[in-house]
TrEMBL record:
This is ADP-ribosyl-[dinitrogen reductase] glycohydrolase. Binds 2 magnesium ions per subunit. It comes from the Bacteria. The gene is draG_2. Its cofactor is Mg(2+). InterPro entries: ADP-ribosylglycohydrolase (IPR050792), Ribosyl_crysJ1 (IPR005502), Ribosyl_crysJ1_sf (IPR036705). It comes from Gimesia chilikensis. The keyword Membrane does not apply. GO terms for molecular function: ADP-ribosyl-[dinitrogen reductase] hydrolase activity; metal ion binding.
Length: 350
């Protein structure tokens, strides 16, 4: 498998995971099943088409910043901060509180290294898988994750969760003979936060017993759904990936069916799975249903090509533009769809 396949697998894995989970975002596990049923799932938010949220947009901004900076951490942070300012001006729907506050600080001139707020939300984790594939070494990866995280979230727990996701995404690249369960077991000694360490230790034990993701979540006390807290989102996504490491579709569906922050958990699980298995494993019908615009599948393919050339050429091609002006009407339409979806949730079955 070449690096292009891994990178595009990560980008599209994020996008389709995000799109499949978005319809059930914020619903408990039980209400999700009552409203929309169970698997098989598809990205069918509106008119049988799938759309992406900030999980995908942040990943694409990270990719552009990597290409434009050639992976130089200081320049990467500056460019990512600039794109986050532009992104806020396009009126994105469903933006998290910590990310909103941080982007507002960027907008009034606060430097990216100082713009983050003390929060352990899952924002850094939803955009970190790509860093795992593009970092040249472990020390480089740690520096990139630090700079990507602190732009919006300064709580060390957010950075630790994001780093674990990035390391998982590069497993088949750096440790091709290691299983996901072995990876998680070996990661325990590297985790400083006691709560995250305990969740990963429990994940390793449940994987050994072949517990389902729902059984693991129930044992963790997350029966009503996975929250946007980093120490729930990251272990849940990692478990869904590790439980069916060779089955991209099943990993994403299991993540969505846990309930709660379904799009973020599924986007992270999809990013890790796609990065390790390559783009070929992503279901063709899911890609066909993805109606994301202006950053289409062809746009993502172009970005993946740029990223895959970073270490091969002295002057890789420029990444595709974000099309910020076109994003504004897209986001207004997206917000209208989300509002109508919220109205449907007021109706039975409860």
């Amino acid at each position: 498998m070449d690096n292009y396949s891994r990178i595009l697998g990560c980008l599209l894995g994020t996008a389709v995971g995000d799109a499949v989970g978005l319809k059930r975002e914020g619903l408990s596990r039980k209400r999700s099943r009552r409203l929309y049923g169970g698997p098989p799932l598809s990205p069918d938010l509106f008119l049988n088409r799938g759309y992406c949220s900030d999980d995908t947009e942040h990943t694409l901004m990270v990719g552009r910043a990597l290409v434009l900076s050639r992976g130089v951490p200081e320049d990467f942070e500056r460019r990512l901060g600039r794109d986050l300012k532009h992104w806020l001006l396009t009126l994105p729907a469903g933006i998290g509180r910590a990310t909103l506050r941080s982007c507002l600080k960027l907008l009034v001139g606060v430097a990216p290294q100082n713009s983050g707020v003390f929060s352990a939300g899952n924002g850094p984790a939803m955009r970190s898988a790509l860093l795992g594939l593009c970092a040249s070494s472990e020390s480089h990866l740690q520096e990139l994750v630090l700079r990507s995280s602190r732009i919006t979230h300064k709580d060390p727990r957010a950075e630790q969760g994001a780093l674990l996701v990035a390391r998982a995404a590069r497993l088949s690249l750096t440790e091709p003979g290691q299983s996901p369960r072995e990876f998680l077991a070996n990661s325990v000694s590297q985790i400083q936060d006691a709560e995250l360490k305990s969740a990963i230790e429990n994940a390793v034990e449940h994987l050994a017993r072949q517990s389902t993701p729902e059984e693991y979540a129930h044992d963790q006390g997350w029966s009503n759904g996975i929250s946007g807290y980093i120490n729930q989102t990251v272990p849940a996504a990692l478990y869904c990936w590790a439980y069916t490491a060779d089955d991209f579709r099943q990993s994403v569906e299991n993540a969505v069916m846990l309930g709660g922050d379904a799009d973020s958990v599924a986007a992270i699980a999809g990013a890790i799975s796609g990065a390790n298995l390559g783009v070929e494993v992503i279901p063709g019908e899911w890609k066909q249903q993805l109606a994301e615009w202006p950053r289409t599948i062809a746009w993502m393919e172009s970005l993946a090509e740029c990223l895959s050339q970073m270490d091969e050429t002295a002057d890789p091609q420029a990444p595709p533009p974000m099309h910020w002006l076109a994003t504004i009407p897209r986001n207004l339409l997206f917000a209208a769809v989300v509002i109508s979806l919220g109205g449907r949730r007021l109706l039975p079955p409860y």
